[in-house]
């Protein structure tokens, strides 16, 4: 998925690999964690437990890190000095749609990040 979705391989790139894998590992840990408010959605007590034990802050930090990661990928693709790839990736296609003002849908960069997140986790 990383080549098709992001235009690069993260298995072979030192620091970026560590960052990418760190985000992935934390996301998997959060998905496997018990979130009390999932079991008691209408209870303030469930929310309080999640906040007290740091689950909500971990979740928010992970979201912010992914948002930053996706923004950097988008910025790389928007760079006019970027070498043209042999084959477009999903970010290139989404940015073309974003630039197309004839679309009836008002596509934003947050929409693009959302599509990337869905593709990343599927």
UniProtKB/TrEMBL annotation:
Keyword Glycoprotein: no
Domain of life: Eukaryota
Keywords of the record: Heme, Iron, Membrane, Metal-binding, Monooxygenase, Oxidoreductase, Transmembrane, Transmembrane helix
InterPro entries: Cyt_P450_sf
Gene Ontology molecular-function annotations: heme binding; iron ion binding; monooxygenase activity; oxidoreductase activity, acting on paired donors, with incorporation or reduction of molecular oxygen
Recorded topology in the membrane: Single-pass membrane protein
Cofactors that this protein relies on: heme
N-terminal signal peptide: none
Places the protein is found: Membrane
GO CC field: membrane
Family: Belongs to the cytochrome P450 family.
Stated name of the protein: Cytochrome P450
Organism per entry: Corchorus capsularis (Jute)
